[in-house]
Amino acid sequence: MPERTRYEEGTPCWVDLSSTDPGAAKAYYTALFGWEFDDMPTPDGGTYSMATLRGGSVAAIGGQPPGTPADAPSIWNTYLATDDADAATAKVAPAGGELIMGPVDIGQSGRMAFLTDPTGAVAGLWQAGEHIGATLVNEPGTVIWNELITPDPDKALAFYQAVVGLSSSTSDLPGGPYTVLKVREAQVGGCTTPRMPQVPTHWHVYFAVEDTDATAAKSTASGGGVMVEPFDVPAVGRMTVLRDPTGAAFSVMTGESA
Which residues, by range, are in coiled-coil regions (predicted)? Predict the structure, then answer.
């Protein structure tokens, strides 16, 4: 379903980019996906730019939070929906994670927190107010998948089960075991181990596109690059790993039926 009006507890509901150069990032993603932006001031004097496409909210781009180390890279953040941010964050430490920030109210938009899971991945929690998260998904230029990449899936999955109720099922695929994350039996994301030793533990974001190869070429032409050349995944589609001009990594994919 491309249009969303609510998210079940545990479902990835929003992504935003913490960028070393928001202006360059906005120009790049406009060229790549056709996003338009609505800039909103933040309490710290910065700007949080809401990305829209065909009238729907799809993502956001902002600067790095105050206190971020100077050498910290740009990164895409994934937020998991929660019905009660305070109750969820109270479970973080007992489940082996660490609360980084919050929970804190973001005006009337919602209530937010950030955590680190026991394997080192950072995730946001979002309790919806006026902002539910992305209102348009699973269409070209919008988020289609969120994937936890971790060296210890069992430890990470036990944590997210305890904090936001995510369940999972694992299958053996040609590239190795792959775990699908579920909410009420609906597939909402994935989990896998790093395919290369230099890949950090993180939540990875996938955007849908009409043509993976053309998007990879456009990434380079727009000041970004290609980290992994386009490849096919049987019964899934064609994908590639890209980087924006500020170094943030993400993937795009064209579904097999597209």
Answer: none
Strand pairing category for 143-149 and 167-173: unpaired
* Token duo for residue 48: 């949080």
Sign of CA dihedral 244, 72, 41, 134: positive
Sheet holding 202-208, edge to edge: 167-173, 176-183, 186-192, 143-149, 202-208, 249-255, 237-243, 225-233
**pTM assigned to the model:** 0.96
**Burial of 58: CB neighbours in 10 Å, binned 0-12, 13-18, 19+:** buried
What the block records as the tokens of 154 is 């069992």
Pairing of strands 56-63, 47-53: antiparallel
Instruction: Reply yes or no on domain 1-258 having CATH 3.30.200.210.
Output: no
In this predicted structure, what is the pLDDT of residue 258? 54
65 or 25, higher pLDDT: 25
For residue 115, give the 3-state DSSP assignment.
strand
The pLDDT-based confidence of 212 (bands split at 50, 70, 90) is: very high
Please tell me the distance from the alpha carbon of residue 110 to that of residue 131, in angstroms, as a whole number: 6
Contact 58, 134 (CB under 8 A): yes
What are the extents of the domains in the chain?
1-258
Is pLDDT at 1 greater than 70 in this prediction? Answer: no
> Which of 64, 77, 60 lies closest to 19 in space, CA to CA?
64
Pairing of strands 202-208, 167-173: unpaired
